[in-house]
Amino acid sequence: MKKIYLIIFITLLTGCTNYNDISNIAVVSSIGISVNGNNYNVYVKVLSSNQENEENIYTKTCTSIDECFNELSSELMKKLYLTHMDLLILSNNLSKENYNQIFNFFLNEKSSRGSFTTIIIEHIDNKILETNTTDIKNMLSLSLSTNGLTKDVTLTDIIKDILNYKISYIPFIENKNTITVKGYKTIYDENKILTSEESLAINIIKNNIKTFQIMLDKNVYKLEQCYTINKIHNNNIEINFYCKYYGNNKSDKNNLENYLTKIITSFTQNNKNNYFKYLLYKYEKNNNDDIKYKVNIDIDYKQNIGGEIFE
């Protein structure tokens, strides 16, 4: 059924009514890219034209991404078609120059839309390519709503961030024994894996979080209806974070506020990177290094007794 829908969609999209034209297209669903010295290792998952729902993974090692795709296209005797691509997996060892080449490849590829989920992983192999993209996207969504770690980002999001701020935050996934969302990795002008607290801080600053959980002293606290308002003026950045907390102990409110203030203040003091400088420049047209930060955390506590909420 998936194959039939795919053929119909491509036919409508391209205006082709000849199946022979469609049979010359290799539909790509996922791509993995790593580097080894001066060579690129490119993994391409292609929807099979022979059996329904079957996908094949091909690997090429070349001096450029274009070369790998041209060689694979020649071997398959088909044009690689990226419109339905839904996942890009990047290795952890890419340099700024590698990112430039990768971005340029997808920007120059006519069939690429840039709307696919993009992640960074320690080691790329066929096993991670075999993982269903929906499962990975669900993991990212769950990590944001439970512990505030990562947001699902697309290649278009990444390129916009780099153009505006010279830095982007990409979900970092560990794939040792199991596939685990660890947090963000910064790329481009900065190359750093963030801790879970740093990842939470950037999601708060960027207003990515609506609901999440915090574990303090082995207790789990759930915060809801969260939002962030950032005020920027005269080299001052004021971060205001608001949430509702339904609990049994009002002292938890102070503990939560102190904890969140600490991790956000620590992040801004230790990571005065290009993201904040360009954010300030965007609003004030002033790229002064002397940036001051103020963090305000306001948690609205509601008492929860026997399932009832009391003001």
What is the β-strand count?
Answer: 14
- Characterize the main sheet: 9 strands, mixed
> Would you tell me the overall average pLDDT?
84
Overall helicity: 25-40%
Low-confidence stretches: 1-20, 305-311
Return the string of H and E elements.
HHEEEHEEHEHHHEEEHEEEHHEE
Which oligomerization state do the chains in this entry correspond to?
single chain
Through-space gap between termini: 53 Å
Radius of gyration of CA atoms, rounded to a whole number: 23 Å
**Helix segment count?**
10
Proportion in β-strands: 35-45%
Helix-strand makeup class: alpha/beta
- What number of structural domains do the residues give? 2
| Global morphology | elongated
Key features?
311 residues, alpha/beta, GMP Synthetase, Chain A, domain 3, 10 helices, 37% helix, disordered N terminus, disordered C terminus
Verbal overview:
This protein starts with a helix and ends with a strand. 37% of the residues lie in helices and 36% in strands. Helix 8 packs across helix 9. Strand 1 and strand 2 form a beta hairpin. The strands form two sheets. Strands 1, 2, 3, 4, 5, 6, 7, 8 and 9 form a nine-stranded mixed sheet that branches. The protein has a five-stranded mixed sheet with strand order 10-11-12-13-14. The N terminus and C terminus are likely disordered. It is elongated. It has ten helices and 14 strands. It folds into two domains: 172 residues; 110 residues, Nutrient germinant receptor protein C, domain 3 (GMP Synthetase, Chain A, domain 3, 2-Layer Sandwich). By secondary structure, the chain is an alpha/beta fold.
